Amino acid sequence: MHFNNIIIPQKYSKADKQLALREKRIRLNLTQKQLADMIRLQKYGDRTIRRWERGESSPSELVFHAIMNIPEMPSFKDNSKKDWTMIDLFAGIGGTRLGFQLTERVKTVFSSEWDKYAAQTYEANFGEQPAGDITKIASEMIPDHDILVGGFPCQAFSQAGLKRGFDDVRGTLFFEVARIVQDKRPRAFLLENVKNLLSHDKGKTFKVIKHTLEDMNYTVYSSTFRARDFGVPQNRERVYIVGFCNNQVTNADMFAMPIPPKTRTCVGEILEHNVSDKFTISDTLWKGHQRRLREHKAKGNGFGYSLFNAKSEYTNTLSARYYKDGSEILIEQKNKNPRKITPREAARLQGFPEEYRIVVSDTQAYKQFGNSVCVPVIKAIAEQILKVLDANGK
């Protein structure tokens, strides 16, 4: 959390702080641990919050007023009427929803996410608790909607052939997408996945997915995009699948994937200043990274850690396993071991706005942003989808 430009009014007494902090946390709908994680306290920060609320100790004036200045309405809560409705499947922390919501044209009427920590982050930002495991939610329990979005996990389609239809996808999480598309008939959908989906099982997996969607009478488009081509300094490449229901959208042929602006970027644009030493990797870990790099080089492969600095054009892809050792993205430091990126820097690498709240531990934050999507890419595709829907009419 940033403490810059915090206005500090008159001083509060210790007793006043004790009561004000507890009441503020309750209004924010946060646990003591979530508040501690949100303001990036060190390990066992929830104990610190607990001591503050009991009056056993007291935060500095700067930290106290930073907490008191946190907006109490979730930054991306949206109750207003919009032109189009959407559901958010395998929602994660809402990156895909956010891309559509930033168009100011789309309202989300349902979301589903099974991971409890991701759901906490989702609720803190959108003011809504996602429904749980989508495999246990009947289609009739899902509201009608215009657009379906989802970044379904790519499970192995080892039994998938080319029979077409649900028999090829049962037992995979893509089946849940197909089931809801068939039952609810949204006008359009956007699905996101790793680039390797295209080559998985020699291309058979993607053919099954595409044919399944086409057999439900949808016109299907797909393309791969890199985050760094949309103004975000990360070399993240993903495949995006867009579809339009032929029974409801008669002008699907006018759809075109967005043209990447290829805005020049550099890693310095996402770096924080005065970063805590806790993100600097230990001597043991640093020596281990260097040793493994030498071993890989001796074997003739390219695996190993990757160093970046403020002048680097972009980083490697942020992964969900980043919390383990940070090897894919290490930031150079003068006269120090390299450091991992911070959770806020991870958010920026995915194009999340500064007001997006991080209310989980560093470990969970790395997992969540590593599993999420590049928001600017989603927004660009959303705008193209909306052009088709607008031209088609309700």
Describe what this molecule looks like in 3D:
- There is one protein chain.
- The protein folds into three domains: 14-68; 84-263 and 374-392, Rossmann fold (3-Layer(aba) Sandwich); 267-365, Alpha-Beta Complex (DNA Methylase, Chain A, domain 2).
- It is 35% helix and 12% strand.
- The chain contains 13 helices and nine strands.
- Helix 2 packs across helix 3 (45-54) and helix 5 (95-101) packs across helix 13.
- The protein is globular and about 65 Å long.
Condensed summary:
The protein has 394 residues and is an alpha/beta fold. The chain has helices at residues 14-27, 32-38, 45-54, 61-68, 95-101, 116-126, 174-184, 204-215, 283-299, 322-325, 343-349, 362-371, 375-392, and strands spanning 84-89, 106-111, 147-150, 188-194, 218-226, 237-245, 307-308, 330-331, 339-340. Mean pLDDT is 89; it is low at 3-8.
